[in-house]
Design brief:
The protein has 335 residues and is of the alpha/beta class. Helix content is 33%, strand content 26%. The longest helix has 16 residues.
């Protein structure tokens, strides 16, 4: 962590975002018969200078929460403070503290990227002398497209332009709602490299993504929302550590017949689950509290299974997600 980011993280006890008891009910004013509760009293604190992941199945309430932060949706109850500004008492400064990159590709087709950024800067009251239009476009790989028609841009370039627009007023918080949905791998890598640079400079980043490996690699802390409730919230490493399950992958030395495989399966301790991979390796999944690696190795010796190679696999964020929500990994869809 560089000095700029460290100073931001340590700045007082003020969080970048502090939400308490946030509740959102759609259709509540119509009498309640068709009302749908999207958020059930959610409490979330986003530390300054962090990269904070907000994950959950489709329809879990992530987009509702982000739209409340951005002032696009009115909460039914609760309190939200953005960069020290209460969104009810000081909505203008609260909104100015955020740069939001929406999931939808909402681009004005009649403006060039340069014109789009200049217009956005004007909306936020950024003086011309302080605008960084060319700098931002260059950083996001749009320098050579600055004066091109927006309709000529590829989907990936339009996604970059949305990020550029969110940064024109130098917000201390950047909200990325599925920023890499539908883009190629090269763009995804370049975008994350730029986001890391912003974060190192002290920008707090809030990320929703359906690529769990992305969240695992990028995020300091992760909150998982399920059916409008906070299912878990912790540093990424702690979330992964909550799972007791591990997998021991054993590559046999030489071909093992069905009899050898059956003998190995029979020798395994109770609680160990065996599967054979297409590579011929045996994958033994077990819980750390009930089965020891030594017991699995003893089963190898007892069955006559010789080991050519041995690796251990730790649980990943997808395992945590499945355990907490019982749902498949989130897909690319709006809520």
């Amino acid at each position: 962590m560089n000095e700029a980011k460290a100073a931001t993280v340590e700045a007082g006890g003020e969080a970048a975002i502090r939400a308490r008891g946030v509740r959102k009910v759609y259709g509540a004013a119509s009498g309640g018969a068709g009302a749908k509760t999207a958020l059930h009293g959610v409490d979330i604190t986003v530390p300054r200078g962090s990269v904070y992941g907000l994950l959950g199945p489709n329809g879990a309430g992530k987009s509702s929460f982000i739209n409340i932060l951005a002032g696009l949706v009115m909460k039914t109850a609760g309190d939200v403070v953005v960069w020290g500004f209460d969104i009810d008492k000081d909505p203008r400064n609260a909104r100015a503290s955020l740069g939001v990159v929406p999931q939808e590709l909402s681009i004005d087709p009649f403006l060039t990227p340069r014109e789009a950024l200049e217009a956005q800067a004007g909306l936020y009251g950024v003086p011309k002398a302080r605008r960084r239009t060319d700098e931002i476009l260059g950083a996001l790989g749009l320098g050579d497209k600055a004066d091109a028609g927006a309709r000529t841009l590829s989907g990936g370039m339009k996604r970059r332009l949305l990020v550029a627009k969110a940064l024109v007023h130098r917000p201390p918080i950047l909200v990325l709602d599925e920023p890499t949905a539908g883009v190629d791998i090269e763009l995804r890598r370049s975008l994350w490299a730029y986001v890391r640079e912003l974060n190192q400079d002290g920008v707090t980043v809030i990320l929703t993504t359906h690529y769990l490996e992305e969240a695992e690699a990028m995020c300091d802390r992760i909150a998982i929302i399920d059916q409008g409730r906070l299912a878990a919230e912790a540093p990424t490493g702690e979330l992964l550590a909550t799972l007791e399950q591990k997998t021991l992958v054993i590559r046999p030395d030489g071909a093992g017949g069905e009899a050898l495989r059956a003998a190995f399966a029979a020798a395994l301790p109770s609680g160990a689950r065996l599967s054979w991979r297409e590579t011929g390796a045996a994958a033994v999944t077990y819980r750390r509290r009930s089965v020891s690696p030594e017991a699995i190795l003893a089963a190898c010796r007892a069955s006559g299974l010789a080991i050519a190679d041995l690796t251990s696999e730790e649980p990943d964020l997808e395992d945590v997600f499945l355990t907490l929500t019982g749902a498949a990994a989130p897909q690319d869809a709006a809520e």
